[in-house]
Structure formats: structure tokens, C-alpha cells
Amino acid sequence: MAKALGLDDYLHGLKNQDRGILAKAISLIESSKSEDQLLAKKLLAQLVKARTKSFRIGITGIPGAGKSTFINQLGSLYCDHEFLTAVLTIDPSSTKSGGSILGDKTRMQELSFRTNAFIRPSPSLGHLGGVAARTRETILLCEAFGFERILIESVGVGQSEQEISSLCDLTILLSISGAGDDLQGIKRGLLEAADWILVNKADGENLARAEKTKQELLMALKILKHEDVVVDCVSSLKKDHVAAVYHRLEDYFHKNKKEIADRRRKQNIHWFEKLVEQELLFQFRNNKDLQDKIQKIKDEILSGAHPLNKIMDLKLN
Ligand SMILES: Nc1nc2c(ncn2[C@@H]2O[C@H](COP(=O)(O)OP(=O)(O)OP(=O)(O)O)[C@@H](O)[C@H]2O)c(=O)[nH]1
Ligand SMILES: [Mg+2]
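Above: query sequence and guanosine-5'-triphosphate SMILES. Below: predicted holo C-alpha cells.
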């Protein structure tokens, strides 16, 4: 077996833009082994000192809206402009890491061949923290490596849209007309989490409908008093308007440095809260006395004791 990497190996590898080390570092922070978690904490603590000029862009939308196809185009444009571009995909609906990765790789084929790009699917983690339990940390690793543009794909179901906007400098909702994603189909939460809305698949016979959806969205946002949300039509398949989106994004990034820094500070509060939860769980799992007590109670339950009575006996501190 290969010798386990130490803190200096990771730091050195990231500094030298070693992609193998980046992949290993991501696996390290995703690992649930306690010795890995300890090393991950030390590594991440070193990395927060690194200065970054990254732009984190979240892309959310219902399954099949065209997120991967859009990211393939946008990411390729970023590579054309010589930005080191990382794509992280979060799939809260899959418990396995298999299926969707294959799908993403085929939808992002052009991008996956670009030397400036790095594509990494995040498996959905079953433990506390949910969807994006380690995505923040993965972003940090990518930034330490030198990635300047981070594109994060997340399926917009349930709470994940709130989650993604807590990780990104800007959240794009990729919408489509028809298929239950018309105005009545879009959940208010999704609208509220979005900074921009792009009506995708505005091509062929869908063009007129997409334009109509755009007008309806503009009206709805007016009623919700979210008039600052950008709404536009794109075709990721035909590459229509994606270059305009690219320029608009870059313009936003360069003109809103202060807003982005403020937003990141607020997101850090949310991050800290997540860390507290993770830390509690970590300490709980590694507290031998407590784990022994739990094992003893389990034996008692097997002998007939009731869990609701036994939980009262369990003092957590
Ligand atoms: N006509 C048309 N089809 C598109 C467009 N963008 C994506 N598609 C098609 O829509 C389907 C779904 O695209 P994906 O990019 O995989 O969608 P996704 O949102 O990433 O899907 P999930 O990852 O499963 O949530 C594919 O068949 C794409 O070819 C577009 O702009 N126009
Ligand atoms: Mg996808």
C-alpha cells in the first residue's frame, strides 16, 4: 500500500497544481475516518490564509433543465479566456455516486477535455449537513490550487437551492418553459434564491414559449419585489446567448467585489453553524465513554428496555 500523504505533501501538491493531489485532498475531506478528518481540519486551516480571486457561480434548476449542458458551454468559454475553471456537481437525489457522474461526463464532454478544467462530482453524503456537507471545503481546496472560476451544479429540489446560494457569489436558476417549470411550477423558494434566471432551451419551436416565460417571470419578480433579478433566454445546446451571459457574469464580478466580499462574510456564519454541527457529531462519535454507555444501553434494549426510557439516562456531557 502507498504511504499515506501528510500535511506537507498536500500543501506542496496544491501549491504546485498537482491534480492528483487535489483529487486526493478532496477525498480526504470527504472521508469519515476520524484520522482523515483531523488531517483535513489541519489542511483546511492552512488554506484559509491563501488569497483567492475566485468567482463562485451556482447553477440550479429542476432535473433535465440543461444545467450540465449550460456548464459545458460556459465552462468552455472560461477556458477559452484562460481561466482555470473547476466544476463541482452536487446531486442530492442520488445516494450512489455512480449514475449521475456518467451523465455529467457525457453532457460536459467538451469541457472534460480542456486542460484548464477540472470536473468533480460530490457524492451526496448521508451524514449531518446534507447536500453540500463538504462542498465549501472542496471550493477552498480548488481555490488553493488556483482555480479562478468555480461552477457549482445543484439540482433544485427541496432545500438545495438555499444551500447553493449559501456557497456562491451568484446563483443562476436555469429554468425551462413547459415541463411543469412554468411560472406556477417554480417554487417561491427557488425564485427567492436566484440572483439570475436563465430560461434555457430557447431554440427551435421552443423559442416563442421561452420568450413568453421570460415575460411572465419578469412580472412575477415585480410582484415579489425582486426586480434586481436578471432574466434572460439562452440555448445551451445551440450556444445562443451563452457568450453574452459570460460577459455579463464577468462584468458583475468586476463591478461587485465589495458585495461579493460582504456576501461571503455572511455565508461564513452559515458555514460556522454547519461546522459546529459537524464538530459535535465528531466529538460524539469519538467519545469513548459515551460510546461505551450507548453500547451498554443497546444491550439493555435488546433485553427488553425501551429506547424512550433509556434516552433519558444518556447524559451527553
Ligand atoms: N433543445 C435544447 N435541449 C437542451 C438544451 N440544453 C440541454 N438540453 C437537453 O436537455 C437534456 C438534459 O440536459 P442536462 O444538461 O443533462 O440537464 P441537467 O439539468 O444537467 O440534468 P440533471 O443533471 O439530471 O439534473 C439533454 O438531452 C440535453 O441535450 C437547450 O438549450 N436546448
Ligand atoms: Mg446535470
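Residues 67-68, 104, 107, 153 surround magnesium ion (ligand 2) (CB under 6 Å).
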